[in-house]
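Reposting from the mailing list since nobody answered there.

I have sequence plus structure tokens for a pair of proteins and want to know whether others read the tokens the same way I do. The first protein:
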Amino acid sequence: MKSLAAGAFEVKMTPQDALTAVGRFVLDKVFHGDLEAESLGEMLSIGTATAGSAGYVALEVVTGTLSGRSGAFALQHSGIMNRGAPSLSLQVIPDSGTLELTGLSGTMAIERSDGKHEYTLEYELPDS
């Protein structure tokens, strides 16, 4: 059965030295709400000469509790901005769940408004 987890998070993006036109960032997040966790990851991004068009990919490992179950899992991001129109795919990497999150699968949506970030994680866990 699918479950929903929702809440807010803060993200700190630290630029890294780039060897190409691709931007590289270290991600450091703190999640609140149904997901009480921290994550560390890396992001690559690139912009274009057209305003509002860009792309990014990222990987992060999330460690904490999801609806009271502890463990860690990995997320993979793929985002595109097409002249201001966003498209984002954010998935739990299969078989990345540990401890009480073993077998976790799902997708996450991120909303950003007024500089604040919110997430909704639609997920499945064995025996939940």
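The second protein, same order (residues first, tokens after):
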Amino acid sequence: MPLKPAFRNPWAWVPTLYLAEGIPYVMAMTVSVILYKRLGISNTDIALYTSWLYLPWVIKPLWSPLVDLFRTKRLWIVAMQLILGASFACVALTIPGPSFFRYSLAFFWIMAFSSATHDIAADGFYMLGLKEYQQAAFVGVRTIFYRIAMIAAKGILVVLAGTLETHGFSVASAWALTFYLLAAIMLALCIHHLFFLPFPATDGPVPRDPSRSASADFFRGFVVFFKRKDIVAVIAFLLFYRFAEAQLVKMVAPFLLDPRAEGGLGLSTAEVGIVYGTVGAIALMLGGLLGGWVISKKGLRYWLWIMVFAMHLPDAIFIWLSRALPESLWIINAAVALEQFGYGFGFTAYSLVMIMVSEGEYKTVRYAIATGIMALGMMIPAMSSGWIQEQLGYSHFFLWILVSTIPGFIVAALLKIDPAFGKGE
């Protein structure tokens, strides 16, 4: 047996690799909102500053070639996981301090940049570490374990923090302990991958064409992407299809946590972990799985408008929740699950459009550009969502969200999709 095997059983590393990819993203984008809400930060500041954490994913196409040009993707993966584990530990250290907001945000920034870089390396390594038939076979596995990471981060870890709060720990101490545990988990994943990731022969710096300069190679992928005839419609779709959801996602947790006297549902931290982080995340995953299955039967063009409506209309359920303020956890769970299921189902169309615009030369760079535009489309609307909510109150804010779905319908109408795209053989 070679000391550095080129291939290993994919079950030994693919599931854990995508757990490691999913957890930091969810912690930065979603759990940070719950953390800061419990620590008394205003909705305006939460939405503004946590939305800036999208920036590494917006600009990651700018440094994605570096992962190809320097060292191995295996080394990038292990190094980034080590930094992520250290970042979680540093967030835990800062939470009990007097200037926790400033310093914890700084470490969330390091976490976000490391996570975005890890995404680039992990997705590239997936194609190098698996044979072609295995890549197809494990696409579903990587998606499922990424979703499990969401449930673990938004659900189990938030429930843990909430449980510690109810057992005598201060809010700061409960969340610090949760982040220490998370740091230990990430470092354990780092050690696991240090020993269990394969050593593909092709995992090394990408050879460059000596006839072209490094800068020419770098910019070629961008030129190819932006020369599309339908580039305006594509960019509009990537930016505005989720215009409403980008604002909603930042205010769901504050709405669930805020007391009823302030227009919220008054749930505990643990209850939010169950409602939004577990039941909602499972519904999101099921919606995505169903969306992928139905598109494989009749193609994206056939299902596009059904998915557009499924994505946007369930947002109206928050208008009812903000006015009725139901006390039953069953009703709240059902309402959130319905909205998240529709979001998962409708987001499948978005995912397929990104794949569609990435086909052809420089596929990896094109996809990185598409994901960067996607992150920008989430970041900008989300930044002002907290301020809008505090000006309008929750009830009127959710009415605004329904109005904000209109751009999603307009940009979907601009797309031109091949009737066969996405359809299985």
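Reply #1 (J.P.):
I read it the same way you do. The first helix runs from residue 14 to 38.
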